[in-house]
Every structure is written in C-alpha cells, then in structure tokens.
Specification:
- By secondary structure, the protein is mainly α.
- The protein has one domain.
- The protein is built from 3 helices and no strands.
- The longest helix is centred in the middle third of the chain and has 21 residues.
- It is globular and about 40 Å long.
Length: 87
C-alpha cells in the first residue's frame, strides 16, 4: 500500500513541513478512500492529516540519520527543481 509515497528521511536539506503534510495527505487519501472531501468527510479527513503530519514530523526527528539519501525526491521537490530549471 502507498507505494507512491516517497521516503522523506535523509533528504538534504531535510523534509519541509509542506513535504511532510503532502505525504500525510496522500497516506490518508489511500487508507480512507476519500479522494475529494465533502461536508461529511472534511473534518475527519483534515484531522487525520494533522495527526499523521505530527506523527511523521516526530518520527523523522527521532530517527537517526540515514547512511544514504533516499532513492527518489518527494514530488513537491521534483516540481520545484523542474520549475527552477525552466526559469
């Protein structure tokens, strides 16, 4: 499950809050099956995103450094690099 969520530990520079939240949002979408929120799902969905974001931030802070960088960059970083290269 969630094979498309990229590894955030070991990035240089470290994962940004936006990258962590994007990964959390992708995870919550996958496990909940909610791709687009409605009035009935927005509150529990956003609460889950906040909790997963907080847990992920704490996990990344508590783990020791990686010996090697992750094999791929997170999507937000890839987009930023692509934009910078085309500018």
């Amino acid at each position: 499950m969630c094979r498309n969520i990229t590894t955030l530990r070991g990035l240089d520079p470290g994962a940004t809050p936006e990258e962590i939240e994007a990964a959390a949002r992708q995870y919550v979408r996958k496990v909940s099956g909610v791709q687009s929120t409605s009035a009935a799902t927005v509150e529990p969905f956003e609460r889950a995103v906040r909790l997963v974001t907080e847990a992920t931030t704490q996990l990344l802070a508590d783990l020791p450094p990686r010996k090697q960088p992750p094999p791929t960059l997170p999507p937000l970083r890839r987009i930023a690099i692509k934009r910078a290269a085309s500018a």
